[in-house]
Design goal:
about 280 residues, 8 strands
């Protein structure tokens, strides 16, 4: 098939590299910065630098831009897409995306299948992209009313690219779970490094510091978009976290060793029940 990737950042660039390394599909790359597209062509990540007019050749278009740009791009350029083309995305939020894209695509004779590759890096530019980024990762699919054939096509391609599994869900369930598994950790990491102790950590830190602070190296423009687009599920999870932190703080402040031990044990049992109960080295 002919694959068009719009946006050659770390995810779009990694998709391009994975396509050219692991599949026989032809890959076109369309990027706002021509220099980045030229670099992708020189690297062999794409077979062709695309223009908007080249979208008429694409069987599948992967939208790898900021969330709020996707609907606008498809709306403004939908007539250039090949009729029957599958349009998919890589966004970390789905309720907002799925409220717009299916209808826009339908008007232009296209079909939208929501996607979210559960892989990434702290760096967010093409330079950080790699073909192996998705090896063994989960690929979430949100059909948004798409045909079973189109969903199966996206599933099969995900496996070709090296993903370990696919997961099909609804926009609401996706956003609720992503608030917990992805967005809260980013809020936590950013809040953690705002401590005045952070600049002084060298010599006093090891794995625990690195684990908690890693994702604070953040693309603030993208994540502001993601947080605000998923406001209600994220606030719900943050309230749960704040309540749990408050219980820990109060038990420590009141020297309540029994309560503190109970809270710590409860968290350990949850991790062990998930098969993740390895006592870490700090």
């Amino acid at each position: 098939m002919n694959i068009a990737i719009v946006g050659l950042g770390v995810i779009g660039g990694s998709l391009a590299k994975a396509f050219t390394k692991y599949t026989d599909h032809t890959v076109m790359g369309l990027n706002r910065s021509v220099e980045t597209a030229k670099q992708a062509l020189e690297d062999g990540a794409i077979h062709k630098i695309a223009t908007k007019e080249d979208l008429k050749e694409a069987d599948i278009v992967y939208m790898c831009t900021y969330p709020h740009h996707i609907a606008k791009f498809v709306e403004e350029n939908g007539e250039l897409f090949k009729k029957g083309c599958i349009v998919t995305d890589v966004c970390g939020i789905k309720t907002e995306i799925c409220s717009k894209l299916p209808e826009i695509c339908k008007r232009h004779g296209l079909e939208f299948v929501g996607s979210h590759p559960m892989a990434g890096k702290e760096q967010f530019t093409y330079i950080a992209s790699e073909a192996e980024l998705f090896q063994g990762a989960s690929y979430i699919i949100v059909p948004c009313g798409a045909s079973e054939k189109s969903v199966e096509t996206i599933k099969n391609i995900a496996m070709e690219l090296g993903f370990g599994m696919t997961c099909v869900t609804t926009p609401e369930e996706h956003d609720r779970m992503i608030a917990f598994t992805s967005q809260v950790p980013h809020v936590l990491a950013c809040s953690y490094v705002l401590s005045p102790c952070c600049p002084k950590h060298v010599g006093f830190s090891a794995g625990s510091y690195r684990d908690v602070s890693r994702v604070a190296n953040i693309n603030e423009t993208l994540w502001t978009d993601l947080f605000l687009s998923n406001k209600e599920p994220l606030i719900t999870e943050l309230n749960i976290l704040i309540n749990n932190l408050s219980m820990m703080r109060d038990a420590i402040g009141e020297n309540d060793s029994d309560r503190l031990r109970e809270l710590l044990k409860a968290s350990r049992l949850i991790k062990e029940g998930l098969g993740e109960g390895v006592i870490s080295k700090n």
